[in-house]
Amino acid sequence: MSVADKPDETRADEKTLDADAKVDLDAVFEESRIQEVFDQLDHDLVGLKPVKTRIREIAALLLVDHVRRQFDLASDSPTLHMCFTGNPGTGKTTVAERMADILHKLDYIREGHLVSVTRDDLVGRYIGHTAPKTKEVIKRAMGGVLFIDEAYYLYRPENERDYGQESIEILLQVMENNRDDLVVILAGYKDRMDRFFESNPGFRSRIAHHIDFPDYRADELESIGELMMNEENYHFSDDARQAFSEYIERRMRQPHFANARSIRNALDRMRLRQAKRLFEARGSITKSDLITIQADDVRASRVFDEPLDDEAGA
Amino acid sequence: MAQTIQNDKRYEAGVIPYKKMGYWEPDYQPIDTDIIALFRITPQPGVDPEEAAAAVAGESSTATWTVVWTDRLTACEKYRAKAYRVDQVPGNEEQYFAYIAYDIQLFEPGSIANLTASIIGNVFGFKAVKALRLEDMRIPTAYMTTYKGPPTGIVVERERLDKFGRPLLGATTKPKLGLSGRNYGRVVYEALKGGLDFVKDDENINSQPFMHWRDRFLYVMEAVNKATAATGEVKGHYLNVTAATMEEMYERAEFAKELGSCIIMIDLVIGYTAIQSMSNWARKNDMILHLHRAGHSTYTRQKNHGVSFRVISKWMRMAGVDHIHAGTVVGKLEGDPNQIAGFYDVLREPHNEQNLEHGVFFDQDWAGLNKCMPVASGGIHAGQMHQLLHYLGEDTILQFGGGTIGHPDGIQAGATANRVALEAMIMARNEGRDYMAEGPDILQKAAKDCKPLQHALDTWKDITFDYTSTDTPDFVPSTTTSV
Amino acid sequence: MRITQGTFSFLPDLTDEQIKRQVKYCLDNGWAVSLEYTDDPHPRNTYWEMYGQPMFDLRDPAGLMMDLEECRKTYPKHYIRVTAFDSTHQWETPRLSFIVNRPPEEPGFRLKRQEQEGRKVRYTIDSYASDQPEGQRY
To answer: Domain check: are A185 and A38 in the same one?
Structure first.
């Protein structure tokens, strides 16, 4: 919550510091308990180095801003509307959720929830439908983060009377006037987002942080797979791990590859095959049988059957 | 372990102990449809507590002092109440809690008179016990649904009055006796215009030589309507229709309706049957029904004998009243905070969980019966607003009689002081402040914009009624005092 | 005269900060908040006009404040109230309702008395303002 919004009593407590006073930044950092979030971020999210760096920068900015206010150094609270670009499955939604948490811990937003929407949630089907729809979404997001996935669909230049434009105008107004009340994050493919900004310069100027989510490398995807497996209480046998590694290399070269999302789907299918295998074998099984994914469970994927350049599902 | 004498011997002429007649069944598991009563028993010296419990079970159901062969013409095992558990009262060697289960078919559906004729009938004069108190009852859903409950209920009352989110405010017109109708209406108008929601007839304001009831009703309704116009708020006055006969009560209630009153009032002394009749009338005529508990202390106050007010509360919610006086904690009348919390829960909650500290011995589901609004009245004033809100909550009516009419600047000022104090406290509570600790500050701050409140605080700042309560829970370590 | 409907009418008019805190209390209780306005404040006028639908699933008062600002702009001299609804079983009713905007001048109500037999009087309460057509009252 920005200081201006705090109840009178709280504001009265925050005394202006003398010009030569000293503030222990470490203590401020500790007090914000932001390290916990960073640790969690490092633990849960593989790779994404540039993203994590940018998050740390934003955190630093907000902490310093907080200290500046203690010295009564006036400046507007910083704009934090963001744009996340990257291919599907690169962690945009997950990072947005964490961002809401971080901004809440740093007192930038009051609630820390994330409202995730697409064009259909914002744009109506007939005249007069769009404004209430967009406003309803905005009202729900107040105090937190509004995440608009594939935001460029709001703009359809081919249709002059498209209601998306109305939604865009309301969003722009709120991003300007209600900066203390919510953070807007737009997300989508980089190229399309760039084209969207070209036609909607208002959006570009209101967005302070453009964060690009790179595709994952093969070894990162492997780690992601392991993490996901462990969360569900599964693990790979050594052979299966090798097979999984080969699987990733093949899958990455195939069309419709969606980074972590493709990995998640692949793992779901492996679990299915494991269950089928156990069931068909009948007889008694052990706990170890139940948690282990074998190489066959991986290699039965069509990814291994088909030539690398063909259309193939996971 | 049941010690009932079997068959042929059981019905031989003569006197056998109740315990051996089938009224003491320690292995009995109450079934869902049983009505359970919990008695506090003080047996005569030398009487075995289990025998005393069995005797209470017997005397409140089928037994008489000697064996009767006509029992054998009935399914008498079913009709016998069964004492199934006897516990010593914590810290008291003389007294015992006896749990007694009654089959549902022992009682007429929807009749408090019938229920009470059994449960608190002859048995309370029974010689084998020195004293007897009905502490609590569990009413099974099957029996509960034979009662209609409060005709209006808290939710609908608030909707009709258009008043939400705060206790309602009332006052009893004072002096109790002697005002003419014209003078009486003056008090009503001043108090309502000043900010109260309701004014109330006192329990013994009926139709005396100094003020006949019709006269009172006419002047009061002039005052109510004038105050409504002056404030834009719905206002009311509990017109007491208590009279010598049902015919007269109906006549007064009809007149109140004709004049457009939203609420009428009755006294507990009119009896359970009359209360249920008036409840039916109120339901039929969209009238809120206020009950003044005149007379209850004769049997609720002493801990060893009588009926706990918790049980009266249950019966009155079943019988169907919308308001009932249930204690203030901080005021001039008897009231231990824990006990009163128990009464309020019984009146207001959709479901009560057992809570021994509050004296609630059984889980009790109210089967959808409306909630009954507890009324706090007697020796309370604006300076206690934080305590009243803390102890009594939001769904209650706070009645400041002396605390309104006795204000040094007049009745309107007294009413305004109470209303401002209340709204300031609600606002602070909603803002998440520790209003119990900051209460006096919150009031002082509110008084800056409201002189009448300042004067009220100055006048009554030291008034408390700090006496030890007599009716206290048995399951707290030490006696609590009124605050 | 000052109409004293609503929970806080005896206190000085609430500031926006105070309104926010009350709305926050409602939202934290899981209640839906809504805005209603009228230029006919008769005590029995239950149905004020709804300014949009009740706001379900709000987390922060800013959403309501945004609408309130608009509503005040559109109806600067109307009565506007915030009402919070509780959908919990056996409540299912407003739990808090307070006025957040009122006209600069409140003319109040006329009390009409129609004398009847036996000293009885039939009372009618009439807003002076409602002598004017809707929209021209304050």
So the answer is: yes
Judgement on whether residues A206 and A253 belong to the same structural domain of the protein: no
Q: State the count of interchain CB pairs (< 8 A) between B and C.
A: 107
Higher pLDDT, A188 or B127: A188
Boundary-marking domain end, from A156, A189, A213: A213
What pTM does this model have? Answer: 0.88
Residue B174 known to be catalytic: yes
Locus of tokens 């201006």:
A4
Q: What are the pLDDT digits (tens) for B348-385?
A: 999 999 999 999 999 999 999 999 999 998 888 999 99
- Domains of chain B, each with CATH number or no CATH: 18-144 (3.30.70.150), 153-460 (3.20.20.110)
The pLDDT score that the predictor gives to residue B386 is 95
The distance in angstroms from the start CA to the end CA of chain C is 14
Q: How many CB atoms lie within 10 A of CB A295?
A: 17
pLDDT digits (tens, 9 = 90+) for B97-120: 999 999 999 999 999 999 999 999
Per DSSP, the three-state class of C23 is helix
Specify the CATH number for the domain of residue A229: 1.10.8.60
Report the phi/psi class of residue B48: left, alpha or beta, with left for phi > 0 and alpha for psi in -120 to 50.
Answer: beta
C60 closest CB neighbour out of A132, A136, A143: A143
The structure tokens listed for B210 are 């100094």
Give residue A260's domain range.
Answer: 218-305
Name the neighbours of A, counting chains with at least 3 Cβ pairs within 8 A.
C
* Domains assigned to chain C: 16-131 (3.30.190.10)
pLDDT at residue B478 tops 80:
no
The single-letter code of the amino acid at C65 is M
Mark whether B292 is an active-site residue: yes
Confidence of residue B3 (pLDDT cuts 50, 70, 90): low
- Measure CB to CB from residue A140 to each of C52, C58, C67 and give the nearest one: C58
Residues of B in contact with C11 (CB under 8 A): 420, 423-424, 427, 446, 449
Do A264 and A158 fall within a single domain? no
Instruction: Identify the closest residue of chain C to A114 by CA–CA distance.
Output: C59
Q: What is the ipTM of this complex?
A: 0.96
Asked if residue A202 belongs to a domain, the reply is yes
- State the alpha helices, DSSP H only, in B320-410: 337-348, 385-392, 402-405
Give the C-alpha separation, B404 to B417, whole Å: 8
